[in-house]
Amino acid sequence: LWSSARETIGFWVTSVTKAVSPDCSVWLCGTDRRIHHMISKGGSEALLTALVNAGRSFCPNYTILLPLLHLLAKVGHRDRRIGMKAEEAGAVLLILNLLKHNVKYPKRAAACLWVIQVFASSVSTANLIGENHGLDVIFHLIPQYATKHLHTIKYVYPGFLQGYISGLLRLYEDWHIKDTQHNAIAIRHSLLCCLHKVTHCTAGRKALISQGGISLLYQTTQICLLSKGLVSLVEASVQLMRKCLPKTPLPLTSDQSVYSFPLPGMSHDVCYANVNSDESDDEEAEENEEAESRDYDDDLETDLNKLRLRPDPDRPRELLLQYSRLCPELYHDFELSILAVVLHYFHQSDSGLFSDTRCPTLLLFFVHRGHPPSGLRGDEEVNEEEEESHHHTMIDRLLEKHGACIPHHDPKLYHSAAAKTKSIPGFSILAFPDFWGHLPPPGHEPMVARKPNIQRQKVFEDVQRFLNTDDIINQVVFDLEDIFCEYHCSNCPSDSLRFFSSFECGNLRKAVQIRRYEYDLILNADANSSLHTQWFYFEVSNMVADTPYRFNVINCEKRNSQFNYGMQPVLYSVREALEGRPHWVRTGTEICYFRNHFCPTQGRRTTFYTLTFTITFKHNEDVCYLAYHYPYTYSALKAHLKMLQQSVDPAKLFFRQQILCGSLAGNPCLVVTITACPASRAWKDMQQLRNRPCIVLTGRVHPSESNASWVMKGTLEFLCSSDLVAQSLREAFVFKIIPMLNPDGVINGTTRCDLNSEDLNRQWCKPDPALSPTIYHTKGFLYYLNSIGRTPLVFCDYHGHSRKKNVFLYGCSVKETLWQSGSAVDTVGLKEDPGYRTIPKTLDRIAPAFSFNSCNYLVIITMRSLAPATARVVVWREMGVLRSYTMESTYNGCDQGIYKGLQMGTRELQEMGMKFCHSLLSLTKDMKALYSRRLINHIDLDHNILDHKSHNCFEDDEPPCVEEIEYSTDCPALNGTDLDSDVNSNMASDDEEEDDDDEEHRGGSISQSQQSSMKSCLFPHLIRQASIEALCEKRNTVKITHLSQVKK
Known about the structure:
Blueprint: H1 9-28, H2 32-40, H3 43-55, H4 62-76, H5 82-89, H6 92-101, H7 106-119, H8 123-131, H9 134-139, H10 150-153, H11 165-178, H12 185-198, H13 202-210, H14 213-224, H15 231-244, E1 248-249, H16 283-293, E2 298-300, H17 304-308, H18 334-351, H19 359-368, H20 394-402, H21 411-419, H22 432-436, E3 445-446, H23 454-467, E4 475-479, H24 483-487, E5 498-500, E6 510-515, E7 518-522, E8 537-541, E9 548-556, E10 570-573, H25 574-578, E11 584-586, E12 589-595, E13 598-599, E14 609-616, E15 623-627, H26 634-647, E16 653-662, E17 668-676, H27 683-690, E18 694-699, H28 706-719, H29 724-732, E19 734-738, H30 743-747, H31 773-787, E20 794-801, E21 807-810, H32 814-821, H33 838-846, E22 860-862, H34 871-878, E23 883-890, E24 902-903, H35 906-919, H36 933-936, H37 943-946, H38 979-988, H39 992-1002, H40 1008-1018, H41 1024-1047
Parallel strand pairs: 1-13, 7-9, 18-19, 18-20, 20-23
Antiparallel strand pairs: 2-22, 3-24, 4-6, 5-8, 6-7, 8-15, 9-14, 10-11, 10-15, 12-14, 16-17, 17-19, 21-23
Main location: cytoplasm
Subcellular location: Cytoplasm, Cytosol
Protein name: tubulin-glutamate carboxypeptidase
């Protein structure tokens, strides 16, 4: 009957009223598509009208009314406007009245409760029910512990419960104590669901806390943990406790960063974003809060004209001439350099006064005394060969005693470079790992296995911290804002850990000792900002060996982290380093990352997350350093570049570092040129040099992405090496490398922004020369290369990725963007050079950490400006660079290839920088060079790597964490229960008591045929087979009759 396509409401009403029960099973078992089709044709209104007509009579016919209620519950559950429709039809108060008159009839009461629950999905409908004392009726349906009518009690779960918290808690306690056989798990779970509903608002959460709800839930949960069958109750209770723990402001005087910096053209007072002291009680506030916690609101570009047309430059052509100085290979006097080398070796062989390590120094002396280009300022060429007197200090004694043997690292050179680095607080102390250097540990480090239910364990510890304060110390042991507490806290217990972070790249704002071996750590926001807290790097000392210490970083902002998927922080031990093991190593157990109950001090709607991990130190009284990832400082970069400059053979390799511009704090942003020297000054060789394509590489625009610097280190060292592949690349290309676009952010330990509190990788569209000088001048330099016909063949910006594994590329493609965005533009006729895939495909072949399937080529725009703002998109669109990429390197490790299950170390990151260089051979004019016998033996490709293919997985993000990172506003569903199955089970269940009550209520005996008729209406599935047989028999009769008529 229901499957017939009838359009009129009258037909629906008549059909529902007269014959709902015989065909109800068709719709009760129908698909969502059928039910939604029914709703679109006015089915909800028809059912409501039928309900009103059938329920208004003095003695309703429940043989029709009960299946009608079942059907209305299932259909209304899928109709978003069912509450409003019920109010218009007058069905809300009617169903409440039916419930009042059927509280003694469990099956009828259950059916009424379902419908009320469906109606209450509308706020106005829920209010209407509440105003008419519906809550009183429903609340009294929940008895103390009982063994009868469990099926009905379970359904007391309406969406409008907003009170009676104390009574609900006592009921839950009563059922928990007396349900020793665990026969009423569904009822106990439903009570927890009611508590979830009533704690949606702040008043409800406060009421639950004031009535001892947290303590009750904690105690009952500890008992439930003893039985595996009560996991659903444990999860619901844990989520409820997490949600109801009172919001605790961070113990800070202000959310604003400790570091402030006066910006040019702006007042010293910085405006801080997203500050809102209003507290909202509705779920919409939760959604807004989550939306604001996202990193950025980006979307795909769908305008074909914007994708294909190149916009005009953002500055006059005359301003581009200043960047000619950044192409020294075009005007350098190579003859003078060659003469210097000859003179050098002549003196060396004649007198032996000069060692091999002094050769670059002599060469630089001759080159820099040559003919510099006109207009070049003295400070634009980086020549740090200054006489320095090294006194016999503690540093010298330390080096003499222990010796440092880190390749491409000199502690004294680092000390000299750091002395010229400018920071906001004026750092005067060096972190030992940066000064001494780092060697990769000898073996690979596997991802750490997640301990089962570790997050639940940590949440219980946090709940205990709220309930029992006897063992809580709550003592500040480090405060970056307090100059006295910064170095030593006089009030700290003598056995507490000591913290320190006032050094380059360091980030730790405050450390609070919670218990004897537990510490809360608060990170400093980005300078001139109150946002972006993720990176940490600090010193810790005064530890006791073989004792587990728990560290809680409580103000992380990202919604998920690779710390949930096997990643560990890194640790550097000074004692281990002095004993010959200067390694940053992965460390930590019991690691998890989850949402907490902390909030900003100023009421800003930001969700904080806790990174918790446990560390057991090896040595007493050691000095250790802990970091989010392997640190790489700006001073390390300067020292490294100087070491490289001293290591190259200037007769073969042209290496020049220059200052692109100054940063906001006055630190030089360096640009490096690397290429091969011409074989001679002959016109042909010089012309070949000038015609070499440019490869532009940038990195570290986001300060916390130190993995990008390690990849860049691998690139620089390889390009400066004597490797035959590197030599071929230098002969084929000119490399322009800006290894650190955000030196100020790196120096001051920020997570994402520069000192202007802006993400520099979102400033590429229209960079401000005063506030974003490094981006402005990098873009200007790219414009200049484009204007002189030297548009880069490849542009790649090195980044780190905190939520994905492996290494991968983001590129730009018109077709793929239009496909993914669902644009109506016909892409069949669009022609696009597929060359943007050449490098990713090559890397997939040769780089074990690279994943081709993680790459994408979508053009992203920033919704705030409706324009492309990232480096790769702007360079692709405005400069016409086909191969414009962002290379993302994981903080964690790989889930494919030969590194599967292993965390990435500095060795693997530097290898990735080398492999990226290898992939550039695929762009050389002579493609055979890639596979020539001369080069293939030097690319270090064993059989396993050559056969490496990325895993077949196209999902961008990790699978859901095994434990809920967020705490849900709703109760976790009980397995195997939903409204549809509950309705079906209610219809299928026998209830002899109700049948007996029905007989007494009707005041007389019921004939066998009447009982059969009633049973058929209440339990249509029992007569389904008989109906089908009767229907088939009837059809056969019709067929025989029809055939006999035909024969006649």
